[in-house]
Specification:
Subcellular location: Cell membrane
GO molecular function, one term: glucan endo-1,3-beta-D-glucosidase activity
CATH superfamily: Glycosidases
Number of strands: 7
Number of helices: 7
CATH class: Alpha Beta
Structural class: alpha/beta
CATH architecture: Alpha-Beta Barrel
Main location: membrane
GO cellular component, one term: plasma membrane
Distance between the termini: 24 Å
Strand content: 15-25%
Oligomer: single chain
Number of domains: 1
Largest sheet: 5 strands, parallel
Radius of gyration: 17 Å
EC number: 3.2.1.39
Shape: globular
Length: 194
């Protein structure tokens, strides 16, 4: 794992660069994701230092792509790298927000991966990572996931950095109430300076 640092308000916070890719952040996936070995790299490093992690599977409109991801998941399980150190599995990240797939397809993909994990004796909770607005517009997601996983970047909402935490908490309030009614917890899976 590569260590980086973040500077904000004259405070230095250690961070982890969890990807080996080199390239612009907003490049197409075909440019960014050159290898599926990143999960193996992260799992090996996490085991060495005793970290628990949430693993992610990328989703697209192509079911064949999901099958490739499932094959990589099988390799991780077979190698023994996927064990109790994986505490959550995200099936997709902002795929509904980007309109790559709809909520029905996302749930179908997640259910397929969940069933596969259970067939392999893994009880890892599964979820779909997406933005708050997607969860609000598609309440069936809350019913389907084991826990709600949201990405929230107040930066993209043009919030002032000094208000970013308040904006994030305000945005989470309604979703949190809906999740509690369904007995689901919420995690923030991605965030910026909020």
């Amino acid at each position: 794992m590569l260590h980086g640092s973040i500077n904000a308000l004259n405070v230095k916070i250690s961070g982890i660069n969890y990807t080996s890719r080199i390239g612009p952040d907003w490049a197409p996936v075909s440019t960014k994701c050159k290898t599926a070995d990143e999960a193996e790299m992260v799992l090996r490093a996490a085991k060495i230092v005793g970290l628990k992690i949430h693993l992610g599977i990328w989703t697209t409109a192509s079911h064949d792509y999901l099958l490739q991801e499932k094959h990589m998941l099988a390799k991780l399980i077979d190698s023994g790298l996927y064990d109790d150190n994986v505490i959550g599995l995200h099936v997709g990240s902002e795929a509904i927000y980007r309109k790559d797939i709809n909520a029905v397809t996302a749930i179908s993909y997640m259910n397929e991966i969940r069933a596969y994990l259970r067939s392999r004796g893994k009880s890892t909770p599964v979820t779909i990572a997406d933005v708050i607005d997607v969860y609000n517009a598609n309440p069936q997601l809350i019913d389907a996931v084991d826990y709600v996983s949201v990405n929230q970047f107040s930066f993209w909402e043009k919030a002032d950095v000094n208000e970013a935490v308040a904006v994030t908490l305000d945005r989470l309030r309604g979703l949190r109430a809906a999740a509690i009614q369904k007995d689901r917890t919420i995690i923030i899976s991605e965030t910026g300076w909020s």
